[in-house]
Design brief:
The protein has helices at 21-34, 46-52, 66-70, 77-85, 128-145, 147-151, 171-184, 194-211, 232-236, 242-248, 261-268; strands at residues 3-8, 39-44, 61-64, 91-94, 98-100, 112-120, 159-168, 216-218, 250-252. By secondary structure, it is of the alpha/beta class. The strands form 2 sheets. Strands 3-2-1-4-7-6-8 form a 7-stranded mixed sheet. It has a two-stranded antiparallel ribbon with strand order 5-9. Helix 2 (46-52) links the parallel strand 2 (39-44) and strand 3. Helix 4 crosses helix 7, helix 5 crosses helix 8 (194-211) and helix 7 crosses helix 8 (194-211).
């Protein structure tokens, strides 16, 4: 595993895009960290290419991808799948707000591995919040957009992956699945919807992989990984120590706009 990939398609008004200085700060740190163990590649559209090449971020390579230029859906999650689809070698894809703290160790016999579950009923007692989250964000989308698959018992609703960190050990199978996914969503991918975006990018991808014989799994969770607004006060006050993130080996700066520039700097300064 030699490469860490990123994807960027410029979108006017995207509050986590590279017109946002906070996003640039976190992406720069992410790339600096990834460069410690891997080559880093940014795959982007033409407008994104012009922006990124002037940001002094130390990517190994910056690539323009024609399909990102022609992709006209408002659902941004599919753009990373478009990048992943172009790859012929095993790789890691991470979001621009995801930062590695160590070289990743994982089971290379699995075809696809996610960093964490968006929500999961696999471990211990199921909580109301997990049931509600899966119902509101995934079951409803399946009822509305994939009722036949739902009726056929296609979906596994016990867990939903988060695509902020995605390891692809079997690019051939993955590319086939993404092509199948793109054909399946043609009738509804133009609808602008956050839950639909997550349903297509994360949940449908995972279920297609599983149903087509792919072996899927998650990285072991050893500590905290989400630097989110839910934990903001606890993180800023030191009640969740940075060592919790170091123990897990990576972090996702999920709600970066909830943090001030000083708070972001203080957190990133822990990474040495």
């Amino acid at each position: 595993m030699k490469k860490v990939l990123y994807t960027y398609k410029w979108t006017d008004g995207w509050d986590k895009g590279l017109d946002n200085p906070k996003s640039v700060t976190i992406l720069r740190k992410s790339v600096e960290q990834s460069n410690r163990w891997y080559e880093t590649e940014m795959w982007c559209d033409s407008i994104g290419f012009e922006k990124i090449k002037n940001l002094d971020i130390p990517f190994t390579r910056i690539n323009k991808l024609n399909e990102l230029d022609s992709y006209d859906s408002p659902n941004w999650g599919i753009t990373k799948l478009i990048t992943i689809k172009t790859q012929s070698e095993p790789h890691i894809h991470i979001d621009m707000d995801t930062i590695l703290l160590e070289e990743l160790k994982f089971n290379k016999e699995l075809d696809m591995i996610w960093g964490n579950a968006e929500s999961s009923l696999l471990y211990g007692k199921g909580h109301y919040s997990s049931f509600k989250y899966i119902h509101d964000n995934y079951l409803k989308m399946a009822e509305e957009h994939e009722p036949k698959l739902l009726e056929d018992g296609f979906f596994d609703f016990s867990h939903v992956p988060n695509n902020s960190l995605l390891i692809v050990n079997n690019p051939n199978l993955t590319n086939q699945i993404i092509q199948e996914l793109q054909k399946r969503i043609k009738s509804y991918n133009i609808i602008k919807s956050g839950p639909l975006n997550m349903f297509m990018e994360q949940f449908l991808l995972m279920n297609l992989m599983r149903e087509r014989g792919g072996k899927v799994g998650y990285m072991p969770r050893k500590g905290e990984f989400h630097v989110s607004d839910y934990y903001k006060d606890l993180i800023v006050n030191g009640e969740i120590p940075f060592s919790d993130f170091e123990e897990n080996g990576w972090l996702h700066f999920e709600h970066l706009n909830k943090y001030s520039d000083i708070e972001i700097k203080n957190i990133l300064d822990n990474i040495t």
